[in-house]
Every structure is written in structure tokens, then in C-alpha cells.
Fold:
Amino acid sequence: MNTIAPYGIHWFRRDLRLRGNPAFRWNTQQHQGRVLGFFCFDQKFLARSDFSTNRFQFFLETLSALKTEMREIGGDLLVLDVSPDEAFGKLLATLETHRLPRPQHVTFNRDYEPFARERDARMEKRFIDEWGIEVHHERDHLLIEPDELHKDGPSREGYQVYTPFAKKWFSLFRTPDLLARVRSPDEWPKIKLEITWEQLLSKPEVLPDFLDHYRENNAKKVTVRIPPAGSAAATKQIREFVKRIEAYEVARDFPDRRGTSGLSIYLKNGSTTVAEIIAELGLAADAKKGKPTSRLKFVQELVWREFYYHILARHPYVEKAPFLRIYDNMRWDEDEVRFKAWREGLTGFPIVDAGMRQLKTTGWMHNRVRMIVGSFLCKDLILNWQWGEQYFMEHLLDGDLAPNNGGWQWAASTGCDPQPYFRIFNPLLQGQKFDPDGAYVKKYVPELAHLPAKRIHDPSPAERRGYPEPIVNHNEQREIILERYRNCRDSK
Ligand SMILES: Cc1cc2nc3c(=O)[nH]c(=O)nc-3n(C[C@H](O)[C@H](O)[C@H](O)COP(=O)(O)OP(=O)(O)OC[C@H]3O[C@@H](n4cnc5c(N)ncnc54)[C@H](O)[C@@H]3O)c2cc1C
Structure:
């Protein structure tokens, strides 16, 4: 056996940064910086029906930024394109062939999606029982984990409604333990890494890295602008948002303004965390006081994200079914023609079409418009929310199971938080209220750009000039969908 000092491996997944990365830091402390970075993705993932080439590119760019970060401090990241069982199996077999020691520890940060939890439980068992490697994991992706936040009493039942959930979240937030989590990564001591894959394996070609191969090939298929990726880009985005946060409460609802933070893509991959955002923006005091301010409104949005993660972790069936099981047998229409018109932004409802075109051409859609197009799909077109959920995943750069599923179930009124089935967005009124100058519609629906603001959300047939007539009658569809919901409720 070659003499290599004990070392650790950090298995990256949704924590693609070094700044303030708790499990990575723990590993470096155990092994005096002798920690190697490891990432693997299963090729099966590329064949998923909701796979997005654009989101994959952003993710590959994030990995590339992480690799650079690791190299800058003396370490390295190895990326393999097989499942973790196969990747770690391959790695350990290579070590054995070259008479090299196994890592002493594998560390990772916890993930809460049903698939990830099952994977982590299986891998932890294999590391310990089969391979004799110690495992250490930490909280990172959420500020408060599902098993930390529950109703009082022995049942430790989770909340199913946002308002009491948020109340509890803020009450926990005021405890010293929670406040200690909110530290700027700049306060953490600098890390220096003392080992690379090349140093360990001598011949790196025995375990070739696949990152550049995928990054170059996938880049050829990208159809939207890919924003700057990685933890430095995320921190830059947070610091830029500081200048706008006081306006957030009002500006956040108007899709033509730059009113929101643009942080969702970075949160998704763990280029930043809620802890870092709260620390960087100095929001802890606001969250502690709980007084309504624009800054607090922003924290409340971060709490929505945690809420949906908790719901998914506690009720994993929501990934495939309505949270409210009374809607299991809801009768949705199966109209592919209407679905296509929605996808293409050709429904004849300007605010809906602008949103759908924004999604397709930029990979992002404003939250207000996500709610409008979601309501429109389910309640005006009477199409299954799961069709919309999947389409969003195919196109959103920030596509993320928990908030996407939560957002869609909210729009369809099948979810845990009350957006009662009888509350149906009127696309015309929503457009007039949240895009009063028509600037958003003009940007994405140029066919209507000749119209004055007053006419843009409800153009006459003559004013449409080739832009489609509305494909449904809102009031008629409203009656139909209300009856479908009522039938479901009455039959239970
Ligand atoms: C139908 C539908 C689908 C959605 N799909 C996704 C998705 O796939 N991925 C995703 O990250 N968000 C999703 N959202 C939530 C929200 O639209 C986005 O998080 C937000 O638009 C991202 O822009 P931002 O970072 O500038 O938001 P900001 O307004 O700046 O909010 C800050 C952060 O708070 C969180 N947040 C804000 N609003 C919500 C919300 N309603 N639910 C959960 N978290 C929220 C996000 O992490 C966001 O980055 C969806 C909402 C709806 C209605």
C-alpha cells in the first residue's frame, strides 16, 4: 500500500460552492485540508422527460466554476458521468488496483427530495458497511430542516399551511442556535487544500473527468443566454440586490421591472444559501423583529421556498399526485391543441402569451406571471397542472422540484396552502393591474406593440393584426371548472 496520509472526499450535489459549505469545511478540518472534491451524475438523468438542455448548461457552468474555485486553493474536483453507486465503486476499485488507501471520510450536505433521500440512505449504508468509510453530513440547503420545524406536541406533525409555518419559522429564527447559522461566509477562516486527484492517482487518466466533454457538447444545443454561474456570481447578485431591496415589496409584482432578486437559479444548485443571503443583506434583525418591511417581505419569500421543501419531504407523494387527495379523480380536459397554444404563447390573452414567450426565450418567468399562466392553464384551459409543471421543468433555468410542484399545486388549488378552487385569476384584470403600461406585453408580444397601454390587454379583433383571438371564453370556462371542482368535493 502506498504511503498517502489520511484524506477525505467531499461529495458535492446541491451545494456547488466552497464558501460557507459546512460539510466540506468539516472534512477539511478533519484532514488538515487533505480533501478531494467529487461529483457524479447519472446519464439516465439526461433522458428524463423534463430534462432541460439550458438548465443542464447552467449546472455544468456552475460545476466548472466550482472546479476553478477548488484549484485556486490547491485542490481539485473530479466529475464522473455515472450513478453514485457506480462512480464510488469505480473509484474504490481504481484505488485498490493502484494499491492506494481509501478515503477516511466521505462528507455531503443533506438533500430533501424523495429520490435524494433514498439515494443518500443507500449510499451511507454502503460507505459504512461495505466499504468501511466513515460518513459525515450536514444541513445546508435549507436554513431550517423538516425535522426541526413542527407543531408542538408529541406527534411532531408538520404544518400544511404557510402562515402558521412561517410564524413558527420566524419564532425558531429568533433562537441563538438559528441566529448562529446566519454568518457571512466571509467570516469563516480561509481554507487551503493540500491534495489533488493527480497527486493521489499519479496518472489522472485512470479516472478521466467528464466535465469539459459535457460542457462543450451541451453548449452547442443551448437556446437561451446562460447567466454567469458559480458562487462568486451568486454573491455578486446578492450584493447588487442590496441596492434594490427597499423597493422589493412593491416592485416585485410588476413583471416589466427589475424588482426581484434573481437568486432562484443560484439557490437551486447551492451556489448560495438562505443563510448567506440573510447574512449578506443584513436581514437577520428584520426577521428577528418580524415588523412588516420590504426586507421582511423578501425573507418571507425565502420561507415559501423552505415551506415547499418541508411539504415535499414530509409528503413525498406530492411529486406525483395532488396534495389534496380529493382531487385524485379530477376530470381535466386532454386538449393538445389548447396546450400547444399555451406553450407557444398563442392563446390570445396578452399577459399569458407574454409570460410563455418570456419563458421560452429567456429560461425564466416572473413570479406574478407564473401564477397567471398557471391559473390560466388549469382554470381557463382546464388542463392538468402536471402538464404545466413538466413544461416549466423543461424550460426553467431555476426549475426545482419542490417550489415548482408547490407553485403548480397552488395554481391548481390542489395544494396544501389555500388558493381556494373558487378563486380564479382573470387574465385581463391581472394584465391591467400588474402591467398597467403594457410594457411587459410589448416586449414579448411585438404584434401588439402598436397599441396604446389602455388597449393592449384587451385588443379588438381589428387591433390584433394577426395576433390570435382568445382561444377560450374566460367566463364560460370559469363555470365549467367550478363545477368540476365541486363534483370532486361532493363525491368525497
Ligand atoms: C407555477 C409556479 C412554478 C414555480 N416554479 C419554480 C421553480 O421551479 N423554481 C423556483 O425556484 N421557484 C419556482 N417558483 C417560485 C417563484 O416564481 C420563483 O422562485 C421566483 O420567480 C424566482 O425569481 P427571484 O429569485 O427573482 O424571486 P424573488 O422574488 O427575489 O424571491 C427570492 C427567493 O425566494 C424564493 N421564492 C420566491 N417566491 C417563491 C414562491 N412562490 N415559492 C417558493 N419559493 C419562492 C425563491 O427561492 C427566490 O429566489 C414557481 C412559482 C410558481 C407560481
User: Anything to note?
Assistant: The longest strand covers residues 35-40.
